[in-house]
Specification:
Pyruvate-ferredoxin Oxidoreductase, domain 3; alpha/beta; 6 helices
């Protein structure tokens, strides 16, 4: 968990709550961590933490973020999300992605345009007033990184869809974190994937 100590600038709604749905190995934990670090760097209070079920590759997992202009007192899972990020659209068949969502909740789904349209229609019917965005994050990840790991493209898509944090702030934090364990070429690929996703995400 990361916590800022500086006064927050205006521009981010208080206590924006984000829930990630993914499978083990897709990088949701990493994404939630550097998103929290990015928020702290920008002067906000933030949390980023995972919640595991069976800890195995491919198993459904959740991760959470909170971003706020004020100190965050809650340390529980996000049950009423403002933003839901789905890294694997097959989870919509087995997991209640819309749990706790309400009018105004923003969904960002990793799916092709055709599949994403169907998923978005179902979510819009289930959650009145929800807004749905779709991105082929796997395709972008393969093109830019060489592996179908969708976490960094989905962060870029979320930033474009919601404006929670500036893109360059998150890229800086991500580059620092990934640069500790990955070669520069891979870091550059992740940056390119995030920027491309920021431009290509589509509202359905």
């Amino acid at each position: 968990m990361a916590t800022a100590t500086t006064e927050a600038p205006p521009g981010v709604a208080q206590a924006t709550e984000i829930r990630w749905h993914a499978r083990g190995g897709q990088g949701a934990k990493t994404a939630s961590t550097f998103l929290a670090e990015s928020a702290v760097d920008a002067g906000f209070f933030a949390q980023g933490f995972p919640e595991y079920g069976p800890e195995r590759m491919g198993a459904p997992i959740r991760a959470f973020n909170r971003v706020s202009e004020r100190p965050i007192r809650r340390n529980t899972a996000v049950t009423e999300p403002d933003i839901v990020i789905v890294l694997d659209d097959t989870l919509l068949e087995t997991v209640d992605i819309a749990e706790g969502a309400a009018e105004g909740t923003v969904f960002i789904i990793n799916a092709t345009a055709t599949a994403g349209s169907d998923r978005a229609a179902a979510l819009s019917a289930a959650v009145h007033g929800a807004t749905c965005y779709v991105l082929d994050a796997n395709g972008i990840a393969v093109d830019e990184i060489g592996r179908p790991i969708p976490n960094t493209p989905m962060v870029g898509a979320m930033l474009k869809a919601t404006g929670v944090l500036p893109l360059d702030t998150v890229i800086q934090a991500m580059s620092y974190k990934l640069g500790k364990k990955l070669p520069p070429k891979v870091v550059a690929g992740n940056v390119a994937a995030m920027r491309r996703a920021y431009e290509e995400v589509t509202q359905i």
